[in-house]
Amino acid sequence: MENLKKYFYLNPSVTFLNHGSFGATPKPVFEEYQNWQLRLERQPVLFLGREYDHLLYDSRMVLGKYLNADPEDLTYIPNATHGVNIIARSLKLAPGDEILTTDHEYGACDYTWDFICSKVSAKYIHQRISLPIHSDDEVVSQFWQGVTPQTKVIYLSHITSATALRLPVEKICQLAKAAGILTVVDAAHSPGQIPVDLQKLGADVAFGNCHKWMLSPKGAAFLYVREDLQHLVDPLIVSWGFNPTPETTTGSRFVDLLQWTGTKDPSAALTVPAAIRFMEEHHWDAVRTKSHELLRSGLEQICELVKMPPLYPLDSDLYFQMGIAPLPASNLAVLKSRLYDEYKIEVPLVQWQDRQFVRISVQGYNSQSDVDALVAALHDLLPQVKI
């Protein structure tokens, strides 16, 4: 299968195994992005004043088809953190209400819930999901132990950031629906890395990034809210959509409130169809499969190197293009610095609970030599940075 490195602007002198942090945009998609920016600058009044809503609707149509969601139930937002802020601030929580999550969640989103809960004396509960983990049923069993009569919201990552674990959100959403609990899913890492069908997912609310595994430019993400719950959503910024005229309404109160929040460049969102087209043209199912195989090889080699077991079965679907391997107790700051300064390897090192990991992301531009370079560098450096 064709290696896609030639399509990316990434520095060829760097072994880049960190697609998961901010993504990377292919050259043809980035060129489309710049074309949208040029079109905006040539006639900004026409673009923002008369074409904006129609262009974004066309883009949401393509995104909706990709995610299996009605475009009227989707709106573009800058990033996933923006999404959790909209939802957390919209919910009318009362003292003693509980928001249940896992102990694997992304720090910025944790801070959002902490901030909101502190305002109303609600509780943000982290249910422990231990590692190693072996199956979906094990995750569900551990997680559901945290549900109480006070649980009003379940908030989960589809794929966690720190531990790269795919959580069985479909099963948890089914249980939550039966229990009358609202479900909010952070899909920051899933679209593009795995197939995402928002109807099958079953979440009441989901938000995710397009700029990571979907390959769009930075500044493109989406918020999905089930139609019957959209009346709960308040805008973070009140602007013209709060009271649109018949000429300016999109036809959706949800979209009106969130789409126009003042002057901004919508080029990243308008480029999402080009990113989806790039994936289709390059047979993305095969790219994902090849990337998963490379990642599996790397995780297995590192586990053998450090004489530690994997954190999830390597032949499972608990991880995809991003995964973690355990590390012995090490000075992570020194190790990360030396990996980059001496070996030109860009890869995140994670301190989670009392454990240390290396988190590897493999994308279509990576090769076996990239994975082997990381393993060789860890072979050299780990004895020197142990604590």
Write a compact overview of the structure shown:
The chain has 387 residues and is an alpha/beta fold. The protein contains 14 helices and twelve strands. The protein has helices spanning 19-22, 27-42, 44-67, 80-90, 107-120, 136-144, 169-179, 198-201, 253-259, 267-270, 272-281, 284-306, 332-343, 368-385; strands at residues 15-16, 74-77, 98-102, 123-127, 151-157, 182-186, 205-209, 221-225, 322-326, 345-346, 349-352, 355-361.
Q: Helix and strand layout, with pairings?
A:
Layout: E1 15-16, H1 19-22, H2 27-42, H3 44-67, E2 74-77, H4 80-90, E3 98-102, H5 107-120, E4 123-127, H6 136-144, E5 151-157, H7 169-179, E6 182-186, H8 198-201, E7 205-209, E8 221-225, H9 253-259, H10 267-270, H11 272-281, H12 284-306, E9 322-326, H13 332-343, E10 345-346, E11 349-352, E12 355-361, H14 368-385
Parallel strand pairs: 1-10, 3-4, 3-5, 5-6, 6-7
Antiparallel strand pairs: 2-8, 7-8, 9-12, 11-12
Helix pairs in contact: 2-3, 4-5, 12-14, 13-14
